[in-house]
């Protein structure tokens, strides 16, 4: 009799769940407007007197139906959140996988911005929408503070090894028959004297080339792979980069950077913080300001705001939890060229250029690292740099 009674209670409970526990009304769903309002609030973005809608529309984060309708009062779906977050973090413009526009919500899934195992076209409840936003920023301040310690730590010497891929897109597809090349970099850095590095470039149809160079003061000394001769060029202000470690670098473009603590991991027996930073610079004058801060307002005659439309990137930092030293950085960075840019009177053919790969750091503050210009390079001939692109 007790079993029958318990089964009856269980049956009533199960039958009531869809009604009392799972049923939702329109009032329980988060609207598109509520989501973007809370997103901007949690991110701590200064709107500069603009409304949230104006801010997001100007930056291409909030797209409407083409008729000025943004449906801010309509319930938002997981897929729509995916589109908004992919644009908000700059991943849609970086577009590492070259996806169609109606597929770019995938970047939010790839980054883990959305919860797992959801039906993408389901409406999102207010509590779930709030939770998604809170998780995005739950450890962003902690991540920022860790990188701030990294930038302020003293690094007199180090070694760097990088494997990179350079991708590009051309305005005229017939100009060059390849769209990517591979590059390796091995470098030793000594803040007291300079940098020594070997750069290997593997170019399709051309082959592998290796360039050896020293950066000493305001000069770059290069050893030609063709004739084995040394040449140099002067870049006024280059030596001031040695003072870059005294700047609060995470603060320079903080408004254009989002920080996200991913996890802790282990590399070569060292426990590391894993931190993602997402950079989206739509006002390239800010990069000009950074160069001015470094005393390099005329770096190689180049003005970023004249040359580029915008820059987008994702940088994953692996930071030693004990020493606050960077162990590795995974990068994916894309920059868009403006139309009408000229180099030596000829139009620059590139639409965009993207660098991706990994940089590994070691031997930080190793006293055995000493960068000294070899005697054979001291009689190098001066090389005149070509005119930089201008609009």
TrEMBL record:
<dbReference type="Pfam" id="PF20316">
    <property type="entry name" value="DUF6612"/>
</dbReference>
<keyword id="KW-0732">Signal</keyword>
<feature type="signal peptide">
    <location>
        <begin position="1"/>
        <end position="23"/>
    </location>
</feature>
<protein>
    <submittedName>
        <fullName>S-layer homology domain-containing protein</fullName>
    </submittedName>
</protein>
<dbReference type="InterPro" id="IPR046720">
    <property type="entry name" value="DUF6612"/>
</dbReference>
């Amino acid at each position: 009799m007790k079993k029958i009674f318990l089964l009856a209670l269980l049956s009533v409970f199960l039958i009531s769940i869809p009604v009392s526990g799972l049923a939702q009304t329109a009032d329980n769903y988060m609207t598109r407007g509520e989501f973007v309002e809370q997103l901007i609030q949690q991110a701590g973005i200064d709107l500069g007197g603009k409304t949230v809608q104006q801010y997001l529309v100007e930056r291409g984060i909030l797209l409407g139906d083409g008729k000025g309708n943004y449906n801010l009062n309509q319930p938002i779906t997981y897929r729509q959140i995916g589109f908004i977050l992919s644009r908000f973090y700059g991943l849609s413009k970086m577009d590492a996988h070259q996806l169609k526009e109606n597929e770019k919500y995938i970047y939010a899934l790839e980054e883990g911005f959305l919860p797992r195992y959801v039906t993408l076209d389901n409406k999102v409840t207010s509590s779930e929408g709030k939770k998604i936003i809170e998780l995005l920023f739950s450890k962003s301040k902690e991540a920022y503070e860790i990188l701030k310690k990294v930038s302020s730590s003293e690094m007199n010497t180090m070694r760097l090894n990088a494997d990179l891929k350079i991708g590009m897109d051309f305005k005229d597809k017939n100009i060059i028959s390849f769209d990517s090349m591979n590059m390796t970099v091995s470098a030793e850095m000594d803040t007291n004297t300079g940098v020594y590095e070997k750069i290997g470039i593997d170019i399709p149809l051309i082959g592998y080339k290796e360039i050896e160079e020293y950066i000493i003061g305001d000069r770059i000394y290069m050893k030609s792979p063709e004739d084995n001769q040394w040449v140099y060029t002067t870049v006024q202000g280059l030596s001031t980069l040695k003072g870059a470690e005294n700047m609060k670098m995470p603060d320079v473009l903080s408004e254009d950077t989002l920080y996200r603590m991913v996890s802790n991991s282990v590399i070569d027996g060292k426990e590391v913080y894993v931190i993602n930073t997402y950079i989206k610079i739509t006002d390239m004058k800010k990069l000009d300001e950074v160069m001015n801060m470094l005393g390099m307002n005329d770096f190689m005659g180049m003005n970023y705001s004249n040359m580029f439309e915008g820059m987008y990137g994702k940088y994953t930092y692996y930071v030693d939890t004990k020493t606050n030293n960077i162990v590795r950085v995974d990068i994916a960075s894309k920059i868009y060229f403006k139309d009408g840019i000229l180099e030596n009177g000829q139009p620059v053919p590139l639409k965009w250029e993207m660098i991706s790969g990994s940089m590994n750091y070691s031997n930080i503050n190793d006293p055995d690292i000493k960068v000294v210009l070899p005697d054979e390079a001291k009689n190098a001939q001066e090389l005149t740099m070509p005119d930089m692109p201008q609009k």
